[in-house]
Amino acid sequence: MSAKNMEELVSLCKRRGFIFQTNDIYGGIKGLYDFGPMGVELKNNLKQSWWKSMIYERDDIEGIDASILTSPIVFKQSGHEETFTDPLVDCRSCKSRWRSDQLNENKCPQCGSNDLTDPRPFNLMFKTSIGPVDDGSTFAYLRPETCQQIFTNFKNILDSTSRNIPFGIAQIGKAFRNEITPRNFIFRVREFEQMELEFFVEPGQDDKWHQYWVDKRFEWWIEQGIKKNKIKKSTVEKKDLSHYSKSTVDIMYDFPHGEEELEGIANRTDFDLGSHTKNQDEYSISSSVIKNENSTTKLAVQNLEKKKWYIPYVIEPSAGVERGVLALLNEAYTEEEIDKDNSRIVLKLKPHLAPIKAAVIPLKKNNDEIVDFSKLIKSKLQKIGLGRVMLENSGNIGKNYRRHDEIGTPICITVDFETLEDKSVTVRDRDTMQQKRINVEELISYYTNYFN
Ligand code: ATP
């Protein structure tokens, strides 16, 4: 199952503390959202799952966390100052502004007028001044993608880890784009997070590695809970490729508003390291790069057999965290009939992504013995370290179950009077709603097995 429409998801996200409009007490800002108590856990779990699959479960990728503010030289050399633009049109009638490639029949979506200006390039990068003098002479960009700092750190990582090609550098972090028309909830926003891998390979090995990463990333999304029939690989047409790409495959997901890109996997060739290296003329760089007179470092490696220096090619899988969260919420959203008069909304997230792993519910919230016992269980489970365990001491049991179904808590553990006598608790499964009594002695292994 999935949500019937975006409104259902937006409403659940607000009601249960996943996602709020930024500064909504002042009317909000378009294209900016805040993650609430449940949203931050889901987002962290998704990022953690990506990090594990990239860094911990492999031995050929290193992680970094680089700064967001970036020198303008980086984005001059990378071509972003020149080409990181969307085509902007103005409606002469109602004065609104739009991305011309997203318009239907060249009509203003606000007033329907055909009286639009010709499209002109609009650069999506945010600028901010740096240092105490604000006269425009010293500024930095808020990076529109996380990868440039990976390229500028290439030599640092190589030297400090003694890696050989092929190997990768991964990063999760904020990116900023001044989107002309942010829309579709958290799908297209102005501040978001990316999970990016730059995988460095020998020229000639690039097509093979590109295919490898397309398949790997596709499988990963399925492991996160996306159904096979909702996701597909789509090869980007030559005319639509970014300036650095030899070929790109997008992983498309069937979002509530339509099928759109969830992740892109690009073969960026030797463009990036070739753009940022010093002494460009010493290498046979295949892509067309801007002349670099500022770089102090050579970003090349040596082929030991051939005794020849070359600029590695880069394969880049780049995924948006917000688009991932939106897709997974949509996949997990399920409306179920319990009996002929009752239904429930349940978020069938994979357990490793669930914001709350288990809720411990004292049946009587004023009974000290029951509450203390519940706290003890909570703290024992919390110490195992699989994620947040919650003491749910806030209302009646029916309401608690409904709330935890809606936020996707896999296990609810209820402590009652019987527990005080025989040390047994009721364990309720989110998906089957089945309840069983188990002894607290067995609870830790039950809980650990459930998540492993
Ligand atoms: P689109 O064509 O949808 O604008 P893009 O091709 O510009 O996306 P990339 O530059 O390939 O996107 O960025 C890599 C990933 O970053 C995308 O697959 C997406 O998941 C995420 N992303 C890009 N722009 C946004 C945005 N404005 N809001 C949320 N996520 C984004």
Description:
The structure is a single chain. This protein has 13 helices and 24 strands. Helix 2 (37-56) packs across helix 9 and helix 10 runs parallel beside helix 13. It has 3 domains: 6-71 and 126-328, Bira Bifunctional Protein, Domain 2 (BirA Bifunctional Protein, domain 2); 85-123, no CATH class; 354-451, Anticodon-binding domain (Rossmann fold), CATH 3.40.50.800. The protein is of the alpha+beta class and 452 residues long. 37% of the residues are buried. A 7-stranded mixed β-sheet has the order 3-10-11-17-14-13-12. A hairpin with a 5-residue loop joins strand 23 and strand 24 (435-439). The chain is globular, with a radius of gyration of 26 Å.
Bound molecules: adenosine-5'-triphosphate
> What percent of the residues sit in helical stretches (DSSP H or I)?
25-40%
Structure summary, number of beta strands: 24
Portion in strands: 25-35%
Name of the CATH superfamily of the largest domain: Bira Bifunctional Protein, Domain 2
Number of domains: 3
What is the mean pLDDT?
95
Q: Trace the largest sheet across and list its strands.
A: 3-10-11-17-14-13-12
Number of helices: 13
CATH architecture of the largest domain: 2-Layer Sandwich
Q: What's the shape? A: globular
- In the CATH scheme, what's the topology name of the largest domain? BirA Bifunctional Protein, domain 2
Q: What is the makeup of the main sheet?
A: 7 strands, mixed
Derived structural class: alpha+beta
CATH class of the largest domain equals Alpha Beta
Tell me the span between the first and last alpha carbons: 25 Å
Poorly predicted ranges: none
Radius of gyration: 26 Å
